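Posted in: Protein Modeling Q&A

I'm a second-year student putting together a small comparison for a lab meeting, and my supervisor asked me to include a predicted structure for Short-subunit dehydrogenase. I've never done this before, so apologies if this is the wrong subforum. The sequence is pasted below exactly as I got it from our records. If anyone can share the structure token output, I'd also love a short note on what stands out.
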Amino acid sequence: MRTVVITGGHGGIGRAVAAAFAGDKVLAPGRDECDVTSEESVAAYFAELEVDVLVNNAGISSSAPLARTSLADWQEQIQVNGTGAFLCTKAALPGMRSRDSGRIVVVASTAGLVGARYTAAYTASKHAAVGLMRAVAAEVAGTGVTANAVCPTFVRTPMTQRSIDRIVSTTDRNVAEAEAALAKVSPLGRLVEANEVAFAVKFLAAPEAGAINGQTLVLDGGGIQ
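Accepted answer (user: helix_wrangler)
Welcome! Here is the predicted structure, written out as tokens:
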């Protein structure tokens, strides 16, 4: 039985990932248990844990043209999506290195690989998360620890529903049309389901996945090669 820590474990993807690791010891802290933007909170949470699998899943998003993106909005997304993954990885990695065993997976986004209009803060923060995994992968290469990223397009979650609601409120589209507009972003032609993301995370976290390191597993139906 492995100890699996999933940040942002109360969200749609977090719950699906937790279910995928049924049979393991799963810890899915919410912000009240582990504020990923606080070095002190993260250090205290991880202090007594021997983490076998860390899933950096905590994330937030908002959209606006760059000219209307506030500094506070920029900083919040960088802090949660980028710094949060950094702090949790930093806390879990020494124990993994000492045991020469561990899996680190960040739930990023296709926004971590390409740019899109009105997502400057989100895109920058997800690029940071993907870059972090690549850098960590280089540090742990040749050991029993791996670091990888999962990059889905729009996932059917409350976060995506908020994007759909924004489209409905600012255009003449209905809910079905707004969802279809998001689905058209990728060749997949539909939203990704949370359990599909969970499958990808569990695959990268498998004990047998030791040769997979520093990779980005894209879930978009083939749009990003």
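A couple of things worth pointing out for your meeting: The mean pLDDT is 92. The chain has one domain: 3-153+193-219.
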